[in-house]
Amino acid sequence: MNFPLPPPVLAALDLLRTAGYPAYLVGGCVRDFLRGCTPHDFDITTAATPAEMKSVFSCCRTVETGLSHGTLTVLIGGMPLEITTYRVDGCYTDHRRPDSVSFTRDLREDLARRDFTVNAMAYHPDEGLIDPFGGREDLRAGIIRAVGDPALRFSEDALRILRAGRFSSGLDFRVGDATAAAVCAAAGTLSAVSAERIREELCKLICGAGASRVIADFSAVIETVLPGAELPVFYSALPASVPLRLFGLLYRSGPGAGGSAADRLRLDRKTRRALLLLFSLQGEACPRTLFAMRRLLSAAGEAGAADYIAFLSASGEKDGKGAEGLLRTALLSPIPYTLRGLAVTGRDLTAHGIPPGPCLGALLSECLTAVMAEEIPNEKEALLGYAGRLMKEKGERPCASV
Ligand code: ATP
Ligand code: MG
C-alpha cells in the first residue's frame, strides 16, 4: 500500500523519525486515501512530546494551536500540518472534554481514544496501515462503528453522537447497530456541547450525501440541536448549501425559526443573512416572466434569488424548472436589475432639472422598473425623457404615486 504523500508531509514524518520519534499519518487523511479520495488535510500523530516536537521543528514556522493538548501546527513548504502527541484522555465528567489528557508513547492507545473505527487508523509509508480496530473492513462495508463501547464513548464526549451522523451522512455509510442504538439513547446529552462544535458537525451532516436517511433515522438527535426541524420529502433534491438545507428543515416552523436557528447555532453573518432572506421570501410566487425574475433579483440579489428558485424547484413547484431558465436568461441579459446598472444616476436627473429630495430615489426606482419591464431602453436620453414625463404627469405632487 503506497499513498501519494505530498513532499511536506513526507518531510515532517522524516524529521520526526530521524530525531527518533515514531510518527504516522492518522484520522481523516488515512480514511480518505483508503477510499481513493484526495485528503483535504493531513494530520500526523507522534510519540514526541510537545517540547520534543518544538525542538524537532525549531527550523520551521509553528503555531501553538493546542499545545497543552499536544497539538502543534507546523508550516512546511506552505502547507500547515497538525502534529499531535500520542494522547490518552483522562476522565470525562461533563460530556464534553476530558478532565485531563496525558501523553503516551504507545500509538495503539492514541488510536483507541479516537471516535470511529474508520477514523482510528494510522499509516506510514515504511510500515503500511496500522488498523487495530478493523477500520479498513468497516470502510469496505460502509459502516460507522464506535471504537470500544459506544455508550461509554458518547458519554465521554457527546459531540461524537453528532459526528456519527455527520460521517454516516458525508460518507453515506450506515451506522452499526450498537452504535446507532447508543446514538439514539444519548441524543439528549448533546445539549452539553458548545454551539460552535455542534454547528461544525451539523452543517456537514445536513449537506452530506446520506443526509435524508440520517436525519430520518436520528430525528431525536436533530431535534436536540435544531428544534422544530422536519424532514421534507424533497430534502435530498435541495442543493447541498447550508442555508438552503436549514431552510428546507425549518420552513414549516414559521418565520421566527430562521432567526432562532441562526442564534442557537451562532451562524456566521453570511449564512445567517442567506437563511433569513429565504424566510423573508417564503410565500413569494414563483417568477413566470423575465420581469418578475428581475424583480426577485432586485429584492434578493443573485445568490438569494438563486437559492429561492432552487428551493421552489426542489420542492416540486411546477414552474420551478422554468424559473431556473428565466434566472439564467436574466443574469445573462444586459438589462439591469439594480440601480447601479441603470444608465441614469440621481445626479443626471438633478442636472436635468429634477429637484433633489426623496422624489429622486422614487423616480430612479420607477425608471429601473420600466427598464426591467423592457418598456424603456436602458439609455440615458430615453430615461431622462421618461423621468421628465413622469414628473409632468405627477404635476403638483410628484411623489404622490411613486
Ligand atoms: P474531515 O476529513 O471531515 O476533517 P476527520 O476525520 O479529519 O474528517 P476531524 O474532525 O478533522 O475529522 O478530526 C480528526 C481526527 O481526530 C478524527 O479522524 C478522529 O480520529 C479524531 N477526533 C476528532 N474529534 C474527535 C472526538 N470528538 N472524539 C474522538 N476522536 C476525535
Ligand atoms: Mg480533519
Give me some keywords for this one.
single chain; 402 residues; alpha+beta; seven-stranded mixed β-sheet; 19 helices; 50% helix; 11% strand; binds adenosine-5'-triphosphate; binds magnesium ion
Please describe what this structure looks like.
The chain is α+β, with helices and mostly antiparallel strands and 402 residues long. It has 19 helices and 11 strands. The strands form 3 sheets. A 7-stranded mixed β-sheet has the order 3-4-5-2-1-8-9. Strands 6-7 form a two-stranded antiparallel sheet. A hairpin with a 4-residue loop joins strand 3 and strand 4. Helix 10 crosses helix 11. The site of magnesium ion has 2 residues, from loops.
- Helix and strand content put the structural class at alpha+beta
* Biggest β-sheet strands, sense, barrel: 7 strands, mixed
The residue ranges in which pLDDT falls below 50 over 5 or more consecutive positions are none
What percentage of the residues does DSSP assign to strands (E)? Answer: 5-15%
**Spatial gap, N to C terminus:** 72 Å
Question: Strand order within the widest sheet?
Answer: 3-4-5-2-1-8-9
Count of individual beta strands: 11
In this entry the ligands are: adenosine-5'-triphosphate, magnesium ion
The shape is elongated
Please state the CA-atom Rg, rounded to the nearest Å.
28 Å
Q: Could you tell me the mean pLDDT?
A: 94
Order of helices and strands: HEHEHEEEEEHEEHEHHEHHHHHHHHHHHH
